[in-house]
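Late entry, magnesium ion complex.
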Amino acid sequence: MACKRGALIVLEGVDKAGKTTQCKKLVEALQQSGHPVEMIRFPERSTTIGKLISAYLEKKSDLEDHTVHLLFSANRWEMVPHMKSRLEQGTTLVVDRYAFSGAAFTSAKPGFSLDWCTQPDVGLPKPDLVLFLQLSPAQAALRGHFGEERYETGVFQRAVQQRFEELMKDSSVNWKVIDASQSVEDVHDDITDLSLHVLREARERRLEELWKLCVRPQVSKSRPGGQRWPTPSFDLAHKYQGMLFVNKVLHIFSLNVIICFHFDRKN
Ligand code: NYM
Ligand code: MG
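Prediction complete; structure with ligand written out below:
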């Protein structure tokens, strides 16, 4: 891929946090400063999959919980070729919700772990920046049209907020929290500053894959001779980072021992 790619910027938050308004304002601001930019949103309700999701959200149809989760994910995957080609051309994408909403909303339902919920989205293009618009569910509930669609209840939104907080502990993702209770213009200024910074950085960096670990395949015991990739869960990611650190310390320690031994023998 040419190095001068566009940036992938995602806005996340509970319902009515102001994501759509802020995405539009960010797109305008970036356009005005001469950057090629496009806005996309998830769910993308215009596709065949998106129409099934839309009917579900509008309570016109019922879908089994696992099924609708996978549809939300499929709705992102079907946009990946378009997203990659735009980014490669140097266009920055401003995205209204992404895999984080997928994981936060489904895992707020009983019986769904965050780990299970992230799996279908492992390997999606990884955002260069995820802006989390922080607004208490109580404040969000006071904003217009709250309660029209599925999931728009205070109890559910509080559970979603907690799940987002869990997701934000993952340091492999570049999260930035924005105080969404400020005025629209102040929120916009914060978002624009962070985005312009990331735009410059992304030009020189490769596009990565979300929630995917770059580790060597392990030999599977259940399939002799076969290989399997470790499950990219948050726990594993943290364990892996920890292991790397311990490994580095041990290397430095053994190097020291060898050097000391060497000089000892010389003297
Ligand atoms: N939503 C959105 C999910 O449950 N899973 C997902 O993967 C995504 C992208 O759909 N309540 C939920 C969050 C919202 C709803 O979003 C529709 P919007 O931004 O109001 O169109
Ligand atoms: Mg909505």
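The domain at 8-42+79-212 is CATH 3.40.50.300 (Rossmann fold). Will revisit in the morning.
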